[in-house]
Design goal:
The protein is built from 11 helices and 9 strands. By secondary structure, the protein is an alpha/beta fold. Strand 1 (about 45-50), helix 2 and strand 2 form a beta-alpha-beta unit.
């Protein structure tokens, strides 16, 4: 079973089989990225636009590299230097992009639901590159791809801890929805003001402290404080106190399984949620995540292009 839809909006509506399809497809592109000639012509003649209404380094760059390695014509759009500053609506912007015979629009927007809104109103394929505090599906797919690559079997015996600003993290939501499809045992831990009020909807273990979250974990996913989405407005301790109670250091990582791996969607706030001795240590696979992001995004773009015919 493949993926037959026009758009990729979130992992919540993906089936286990669809997720596995993307993970398998990414293996081919990972091999291409490791070769000397990192290019094919699968998307020759196609046009992709990276429409980012928020700042981004890893996601926008990896989508751009992914499209170019597939042979597509790629344009980067920044809202700060566009007609958006003149009051143009998201609907009008998307329709104007589609009118230029654009095949795929990769959209990042500060409003939750923006990707679905755009997908319902344009013929172009929409890839959600992060919408508000809702979802970030390509990050979840690359996280799962990274887990499998490091020998973590995606089933009920896998223990994954997600720690940090869960309330405002679209990465956390996409990871949770995707991992629930495999029956993965999820443990969540956050400062009280950074845990969603409806966290029970995730049907996961809510931990009381870092030690409980880390103990026996196969995978630890650390999240930063989402300052740009209201994290600066909540009452939380100083950076030093945050690190003391909610940060991952070399002593806490010892509570996890010996072969545990540490993930982070970036950017890292060193010395806050993650100490450098962990970020740069043997448990860290953060740079592997970045590398795998290109392969996953190549798989996404190629799949949607094929679905368009």
């Amino acid at each position: 079973m493949g993926y037959k839809h026009k758009d990729l909006i979130g992992t919540r509506e993906l089936s286990k089989e669809e997720i596995l399809y993307f993970l398998e497809a990414a293996k081919e592109f990972k091999e291409l990225n490791l070769s000397q000639v990192k290019k094919n012509d699968y998307l020759r003649g196609k046009t992709t636009i990276n429409a980012f209404y928020e700042n981004s380094t890893r996601t926008r760059t990896s989508f751009e590299i992914a499209a170019k390695r597939l042979g597509a014509d790629t344009i980067n759009f920044s809202s700060s230097s566009s007609s958006v500053t003149k009051g143009e609506s998201l609907n009008d912007t998307m329709n104007n992009m589609a009118a230029m015979r654009t095949d795929i629009i990769v959209l990042r927007h500060p409003s939750s639901g923006a990707a679905k809104f755009a997908a319902d109103r344009t013929d172009a394929s929409i890839v959600n590159a992060g919408d508000g505090t809702n979802e970030h599906p390509s990050q979840a797919l690359l996280d799962l791809f990274t887990l499998r690559e490091h020998g973590k079997i995606l089933d009920k015996n896998l223990n994954v801890a997600i720690i940090g600003d869960i309330a405002r993290s679209r990465v956390a939501r996409s990871d949770i929805w995707a991992m629930k499809k495999f029956g993965i045992n999820l443990k969540l831990f956050a400062p009280r003001m950074m845990m969603p009020k409806d966290a029970e909807v995730f049907e996961s273990q809510i931990c009381k402290n870092m030690e409980e979250a880390c103990e026996g974990s196969d995978v630890i996913i650390m999240l930063r404080i989402q300052l740009e989405r209201g994290g600066a407005d909540v009452a939380f301790p100083s950076s030093r106190e945050y690190s003391k109670f909610f940060g991952l250091n070399k002593n806490r990582i010892k509570l996890a399984k010996p072969n545990a791996i540490v993930l982070h969607p970036g950017p890292i706030n060193r010395g806050v949620e993650l100490n450098s001795d962990v970020a740069d240590g043997t448990h860290s696979v953060i740079l592997n995540q970045v590398e795998n992001g290109v392969a996953i995004r190549m798989a996404i773009l190629n799949t949607l292009a094929k679905n368009r015919g």
